[in-house]
Write a structure and sequence with these properties.
Blueprint: H1 11-19, E1 22-23, E2 26-27, H2 33-39, H3 42-66, H4 75-79
Antiparallel strand pairs: 1-2
């Protein structure tokens, strides 16, 4: 959940605050919308946003690789009707 009291215009910063697991020596529970708004300069925000977008791209690329296939356990299994294909996992 994003913190209370964040204006609509600050939603991206609020979400970013919840996504960061550590910022230098600052633990996740101390990284807040207010902390980011008061301390980040535009270059810092851009670097964090770029890293967030890159991570999102990498996770999206993994989605097709997460689909599993079913292999027959024995030769007799291969003559039976094929089971339905499993649904792809969503991360």
């Amino acid at each position: 959940m994003v913190e209370e009291g964040i204006p609509d215009s600050g939603t991206i910063v609020g979400v970013l605050a919840r996504c960061i697991t550590e910022l230098g020596s600052i633990p996740a529970e101390e990284i807040t919308y207010r902390l980011l708004c008061e301390t980040l300069v535009s270059e810092d925000f851009k670097a964090l946003r770029d890293a967030q977008l890159e991570a999102k791209k990498k996770l999206s690329a993994l989605k097709p690789a997460c689909a599993t296939t079913v292999s027959p356990l024995s030769d007799s299994d291969s003559t039976a009707s094929a089971p339905p294909a499993p649904a792809a996992l969503t991360l």
